[in-house]
Amino acid sequence: MFLALYLLVYAKTYIYKPWTTFSWPRISFFLKFPPLWNKETYLRFSFSCPTRKRPTKFPSRIHLYQQHPDWRGKVVLVQIANPARGRGRDVQEVQSETYSTAKRINETFGRPGYSPVVLIDTPLQFYERIAYYMIAECCMVTAVRDGMNLIPYEYIICRQGNEKLDETLQLDPSVPKKSMLVVSEFIGCSPSLSGAIRVNPWNIDAVAEAMDHALVVPESEKQLRHEKHYRYVSTHDVGYWAQSFLQDLERACRDHLRRRCWGIGFGLGFRVISLDPNFRKLSLDHIVSAYKRSRNRAILLDYDGTMMAPSVTDKTPNPEVIGFLNSLCRDPKNVVFLVSGRDKKTLTDWFSSCEKLGLAAEHGYFMRQRHDEDWETCVPVTEFDWKQTAEPVMKLYTETTDGSTIETKESALVWHYQYADPDFGSCQAKELLDHLESVLANDPVSVKSGQHIVEVKPQVSQ
């Protein structure tokens, strides 16, 4: 067993060394921990860092023994606490809490010859870490906040081994490999490991139940999860991602050589746009000339963001805007429509003085050609039961996103986050969009995102 742990380092780097080249000081490392023999071993990595502090480092272990006493004497948790990169009071508090909790667990649930927790707080050599990967039936990474953590990937590769290792140790290569992962939903690699048990590290009970579930999972399922993970990790290596990034860059830049690039805006609003080489800036003189030559003109005007600047707080049209609209409507050659996402009552109140102005409310769901005509429904929809499903979801995100609001229309529901924190609001909007698409998958509606909005409205058949 312990020889296999050491050999794996060379197996995974494809540099095989025979037994005679190993040094006894390294092999003796594995003999220091007899409590691991014939036990189900949990491997857990942590950092003595306040920003990654684990609230479930050991409390979940206590819950596991309290809720499932059958595991006492059968399971060992190897807690590898990587040394902190700095020194400070916060770091010392984390270390002190770790030591005291580990000692309390061993005193409460341990017995002569058995320690439920093996705490390693010294720097590990690479081969030593590989050894622990090999003997661990399950690996846990429950960081509260972390980036692209590679520990789960290393664990999967080590549990797989290779043909040379099996041949050297006289292991049956036909025996399927297996592994189990319990990972925090807050680490970057979590979405890539579909077979892992994901947990919220702040929920101690959930972490304890995940540990128990990882132990009682049937062997066949452990094998399937391992095969799925190994297939992904072994195919998505550095070469794969490098090639993928290059392909994306080539695809994005494929037509750049024949396009013309223009810089628009200033400061934080500056951006570069690429245009077709045949693109020509629209000349005001050309517009005026074409306007005068035409006999029939259809003029469609947007309101919010076009006739009214986004930065304006009071969206009510001023007399100057009303005057321009009336001037266009007085020309008998013109048919003028104002298209807006606002409801028909608001548009009726705002533009009551424009008698010949056509209005399209709620993005064309309601339409009125003149002030003295009734509103017409362009898309006949009689069922709005989907609102009872969508509105509670939007309310949930409104409560957790400061500055967001819900706008209820006759034909749609709109979630606004213009006044929320830009980064957090955008993140919440993407999550809300996915949530609504999931719960409304069987309803005849479309879920769209726009400028600081997420909107649900009836689906229009083509």
UniProtKB/TrEMBL annotation:
It comes from the Eukaryota. One of its GO terms (cellular component) is cytosol. SUPFAM superfamilies: HAD-like (SSF56784), UDP-Glycosyltransferase/glycogen phosphorylase (SSF53756). GO terms for molecular function: glycosyltransferase activity; trehalose-phosphatase activity. InterPro entries: Glyco_trans_20, HAD-like_sf, HAD_sf, Trehalose_PPase. Keywords: Glycosyltransferase, Transferase. This is Uncharacterized protein. In the N-terminal section; belongs to the glycosyltransferase 20 family. One of its GO terms (biological process) is trehalose biosynthetic process. The keyword Zinc-finger does not apply. It comes from Aquilegia coerulea. It holds the Pfam family Glyco_transf_20.
